[in-house]
């Protein structure tokens, strides 16, 4: 009789992942973290969420999301320190809760990663087509600028950027690392410039009302801010991507926590500053556009700065694409490694030490969604998987501390057990605050995942085939 709650051992994962090359240090992880967190989330979401859910109080939504993510990030850091393996929440879940819970988390995060990359690619295409090609008088024909749901045939720019990212990742972690480190410095500098320059054009009337009445839905009149907060968790899925790189980190006990906490601090400063200036420069009602920062600078006739912010957005989204693609391909590799997906996905290319088949699968799926599905449809599906993983990782610290077979002598989440419980409860609250369509869609996806597990995964699982 097979036991779906059978738990994997850390030693098995460490042995399997020894094929991956350890090249990442604390600075590389910080670059990866900032690369993931400061992407479409900062260049696109503040505008949409201000217009649709929170008004200028979107600043508060980002602050809350960053604080909760920071708490959960500490849980991820402790897990990564104790278990420096590929697969992040999937692998952690399989060790702590059992195979089926690990699979559900992995399945939810596959959707998360793939759709995040697709959404980032659509955001990239929006800035590129409108502000780069448009500046040279080149206007992409409608059938090449949008997918079928928006009256076109394919979003060609979004598709091509996914293919380019796949090419870089297939060359190995060291090239990805070099590209990421340079690009992150450029985009952070440009965001800081936007905050400084935009501050001179703030019209304080745009902050009144700071939290418009039409968004005062239940519970406690915080509905609009809560929904915006739940939606912008999309920006913070980068923590899982950082953990996904634990197996390729030189000193995971120290470096992962530095990467996670450094990313939180930078994210809080940049997100809050950016959204505060954005909603001060332009009235929130005008910000429901895919390139709000560039739009805001156009409104105040700063055309030169508009081009600069476009470059920052393109570089920013590019690095985010790189990190999320990296993390998603490692998750597919981990599921293949364990037999829950076809074993070919768990193979590692000998020349470049990358899971080539996993990268190619991720490329095909992500390019398909990027080319054919609009940004708003993609982002509405993304956050539930992130928050589900946040719940299990936060509460998972409690059984992790009780496991004598896992050497947990690195970073420890503070204020145990209060902080892990608070982080888990906050994640559950925001999970329920997501739009209904998100919850239904992810519920359907997880149902499909459970069917796949019982039809395929359980039969091919390497863990199940081991003698008891």
Automatic annotation (TrEMBL):
Membrane-spanning intervals of the chain: 29-48, 54-77, 89-110, 152-170, 182-202, 222-244, 256-278, 308-333, 354-375, 381-401, 413-434, 440-458
Main subcellular localization, coarse class?
A: membrane
User: What topology in the membrane does the UniProt record assign?
Assistant: Multi-pass membrane protein
Pfam families according to UniProt? AA_permease_2
Keyword S-adenosyl-L-methionine attached: no
Q: Which UniProt keywords apply?
A: Membrane, Transmembrane, Transmembrane helix, Transport
Output the Gene Ontology terms for molecular function.
Answer: amino acid transmembrane transporter activity
- Coiled-coil-forming residues are none
* Keyword match Kinase: no
Subcellular localization(s) per the UniProt record? Membrane
Q: Which domain of life is it from?
A: Bacteria
Q: Which GO terms describe its cellular component?
A: membrane
What the entry lists under PANTHER family is as follows: CATIONIC AMINO ACID TRANSPORTER 4, INNER MEMBRANE TRANSPORTER YGJI-RELATED
Name the chain's protein. Answer: Amino acid permease
Its source organism is: Companilactobacillus pabuli
**Source species taxonomy:** Bacteria, Bacillati, Bacillota, Bacilli, Lactobacillales
């Amino acid at each position: 009789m097979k036991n779906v709650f059978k738990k994997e051992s850390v030693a098995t994962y460490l042995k399997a992942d020894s094929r991956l090359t350890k090249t990442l240090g604390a600075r590389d992880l910080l670059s990866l973290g900032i690369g993931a967190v400061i992407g479409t989330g900062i260049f696109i979401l503040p505008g949409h969420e201000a217009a649709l859910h929170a008004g200028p109080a979107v600043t508060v939504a980002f602050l809350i999301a960053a604080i909760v993510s920071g708490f959960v990030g500490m849980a991820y850091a402790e897990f990564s320190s104790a278990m420096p393996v590929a697969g992040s929440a999937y692998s952690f879940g399989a060790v702590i809760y059992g195979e089926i819970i690990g699979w559900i988390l992995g399945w939810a995060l596959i959707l998360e990663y793939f759709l995040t990359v697709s959404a980032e690619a659509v955001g990239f295409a929006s800035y590129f087509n409108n502000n780069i090609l448009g500046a040279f008088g080149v206007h992409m024909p409608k059938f090449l600028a949008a997918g079928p749901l928006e009256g076109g045939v394919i979003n060609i720019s979004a598709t091509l950027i996914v293919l380019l990212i796949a090419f870089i990742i297939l060359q190995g972690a060291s090239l990805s690392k070099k590209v990421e480190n340079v690009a992150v410095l450029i985009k952070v500098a440009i965001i800081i410039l936007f905050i400084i320059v935009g501050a001179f054009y703030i019209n304080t009337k745009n902050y009144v009302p700071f939290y418009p009445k039409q968004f005062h839905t239940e519970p406690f009149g915080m509905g609009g801010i809560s929904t915006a907060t739940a939606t912008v968790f999309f920006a913070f899925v980068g923590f899982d991507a950082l953990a996904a790189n634990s197996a390729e980190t030189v000193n995971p006990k120290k470096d992962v926590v530095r990467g996670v906490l450094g990313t939180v601090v930078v994210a809080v400063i940049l997100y809050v500053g950016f959204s505060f200036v954005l909603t001060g420069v332009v009235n929130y009602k005008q910000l429901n556009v895919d390139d709000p920062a560039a739009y805001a600078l156009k409104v105040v006739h700063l055309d030169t700065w508009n081009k600069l912010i476009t470059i920052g957005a393109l570089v920013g989204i590019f690095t985010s694409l790189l990190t999320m693609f990296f993390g998603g391909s490692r998750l597919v590799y981990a599921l293949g490694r364990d037999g829950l997906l076809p074993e070919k996905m768990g193979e590692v290319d000998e020349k470049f030490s990358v899971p080539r088949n996993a990268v190619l699968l991720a490329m095909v799926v992500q390019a398909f969604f990027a080319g054919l599905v609009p940004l708003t449809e993609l982002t509405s599906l993304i956050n539930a998987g992130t928050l589900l993983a946040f719940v299990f990782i936060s509460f998972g610290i409690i059984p992790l501390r009780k496991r004598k077979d896992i050497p947990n002598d690195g970073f420890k989440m503070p204020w145990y057990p209060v902080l892990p419980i608070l982080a888990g409860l906050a994640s559950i609250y925001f999970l329920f605050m997501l739009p209904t369509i998100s919850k239904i869609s992810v519920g359907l996806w997880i149902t499909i995942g459970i069917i796949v597990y019982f039809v395929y995964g359980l039969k091919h699982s390497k863990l199940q085939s081991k003698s008891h």
